[in-house]
Design brief:
Length: 245
């Protein structure tokens, strides 16, 4: 069982699952399209000239559509995370709600999309290369489909990793924002995963108190690495003074 300092493991899982579903759905489309095109080495030359460009484009278009599907998924899950962080912070501070800025939320959504878009552009280029090579080598339709599937799985896996990490980022950024908005505290506490998976980068920061006006240093702002689960929690001074006495 993973330790979950941000309390977002459930959102992360659903997010990753939605991404996997989106890719799987598009992959089925590719399968159908490829079978309609009826690729298959008849004559190698004809294959190269006619079928390679058209089928590559068809598949690349579908892949591009898969990234479009992700936009809605990203916006949904980052919003849920952002709202959860504001609710959690309000609860700690005994406040009803903390109103958040729509612009700050959108900035986080865009940042997440940007990472996945960057990934997609790299992968599309690579993907095109692999496919064209496979086709010009006269690979069978099944072999090409296997290559396509592998590429889809690789992109999906990496996108899921980005999603998990970005949920942690959104949660922590929103927590700091909520602290700033409420003006209740200017300090947050760094919580690591506290299990065997905690990395050497995060470990020394466990329990460290950080002033939120002093967070330009990216090494204090989790995620510090892909799949980092560390959290920033609002720190209430009164409580601390009581326990210290
Ligand atoms: Zn960490």
């Amino acid at each position: 069982m993973l330790h979950d300092p941000t309390g977002t493991l459930n959102i992360q899982k659903q997010y990753a699952l939605s991404i996997r579903r989106a890719y799987r759905q598009r992959f089925h489309e590719v399968e159908t399209l490829l079978s309609r095109l009826n690729l298959g080495p008849t004559s190698k030359e004809g294959f190269k000239e006619k079928k390679v460009p058209s089928s590559t484009n068809v598949i690349l278009n579908v892949l591009t559509l898969a990234f479009h599907d992700l936009k809605e998924i990203i916006n949904h899950f980052i919003k849920r995370t952002f709202e959860k962080a504001h609710k959690d912070t309000a609860r700690v501070m005994n406040m009803q709600t903390i109103t958040y800025s729509e612009a700050k939320l959108q900035a986080l959504q865009n940042m997440n999309y940007h990472y996945i878009e960057k990934l997609s552009k790299n992968r599309i280029a690579k993907f095109k290369e692999v496919m064209e090579q496979g086709m010009s080598e006269g690979k069978s339709q099944q072999e090409i489909l296997a290559d396509v599937k592998q590429s889809f799985n690789a992109v999906a896996w990496k996108s899921e990793q980005i999603a998990r990490t970005e949920v942690v980022r959104a949660y922590n950024k929103a927590t700091v924002e909520a602290c700033k908005t409420s003006a209740f505290t200017d300090t947050v506490r760094f919580f690591t995963e506290r299990d065997e998976n905690v990395c050497p980068l995060c470990k020394p920061l466990n329990n460290k108190l950080i002033n939120i006006n002093n967070m330009q240093n990216a090494l204090l702002f989790p995620p510090l690495h892909p799949n980092c689960r560390c959290a920033l929690h609002p720190h209430i001074k009164v409580e601390e003074e009581e326990t210290d006495d």
